[in-house]
Design brief:
Helix content: 55-70%
Mean pLDDT: 90
Number of strands: 11
Distance between the termini: 16 Å
Shape: elongated
Structural class: mainly alpha
Order of helices and strands: EEHHHHHHEEEEEEEHEE
Strand order of the largest sheet: 7-8-9
Length: 265
């Protein structure tokens, strides 16, 4: 399990004369901390779900056998329900429907027993990867907002610059994920995307023309960006550690009073 610690140097800000501005800045700084916590949880759940996916892959052969036994039992029951006066030709014509009905009912029986559909299981790592990316994107947006607030230390602009350099594809990767309805059509808003060359561990397309939506390349979540290139974000301890360090620098840049706060609680 990963835990990324933060220390807020005090409870309240000082040095910001406007009370409303001070409250706004305190809220934004609290949001930065929440983003690190959300990214940490998403990272832990992402790695746990991938470990479970590898384990379930090893069990699929035995599961396949039990599924076939279940299907055959349902199929035999459906065959017994056929009228006895059917001709061999009519019985043969209904076999495809019976096999498909048996397959569907066997799946439903398995679900009623509490087994998660394989299609759902396969999506779990993607959900947690996107949660991590979204938390990091919110963190970046929050830093950018802070740079525009009067009386904010100039160090915040440096923290934002460091964060953006560390994650150059973050904003566009998040936008592509959030606007998948456009990307699956090869569009950015109403404009058609010109797909650029792509070469990584999963895809080799030096001539371009490959549209990628919602892909995990090992622990990297990515897809086709709005400019037609491919971009990705590492979902890793190193990524969240970088976010933690940036947020800690942002907290340290301000003048605080009151007792320090160690997080997570």
């Amino acid at each position: 399990m990963y835990v990324f610690e933060l220390v807020q140097p005090g409870c309240w800000l000082r040095g910001i004369t406007d009370d409303q501005v001070r409250r706004d800045v305190e809220s934004l700084l609290h949001l930065l901390v929440t983003c690190v916590e959300d990214a940490t949880l998403a990272l832990n759940m992402f790695e746990n779900s991938r470990d479970r996916a590898y384990e379930s892959a090893e069990d699929r052969s035995s599961s396949w056998e039990s599924d076939r036994v279940r299907e055959r039992a349902v199929e035999e029951e459906l065959l017994r329900q056929l009228p006895h006066d059917l001709t061999p030709e009519s019985r043969f014509q209904q076999m495809d429907d019976i096999r498909e009905s048996a397959r569907r009912e066997a799946k439903r029986m398995k679900w009623r027993e509490g087994h998660l559909p394989q299609g759902y299981q396969d999506r779990i790592p993607f959900i947690h990867a996107k949660s991590c990316v979204y938390a990091l994107d919110t963190l970046q947006k929050t830093l950018r907002l802070l740079t525009k607030v009067p009386d904010v230390p100039i160090d915040i602009a440096e923290v934002l610059k460091e964060f953006e350099l560390a994650f150059p594809d973050l904003v566009q990767a998040r936008d592509s994920s959030h606007h998948a309805e456009d990307r699956v059509q090869g569009k950015r808003r109403k404009d058609r995307i010109e797909l650029k060359p792509l070469a990584n561990k999963a895809i080799h397309a030096p001539g371009g023309g490959v549209l990628v939506v919602d892909m995990l390349n090992d622990n990297r979540y990515g897809g086709t960006l709005g400019d037609g290139s491919y971009g990705e974000v590492d979902v890793s301890p190193q990524t969240v550690s970088t976010a933690q360090q940036c947020v800690q620098r942002a907290l340290n840049a301000f003048d605080w009073h009151g007792p320090a706060m160690h997080m997570p609680r």
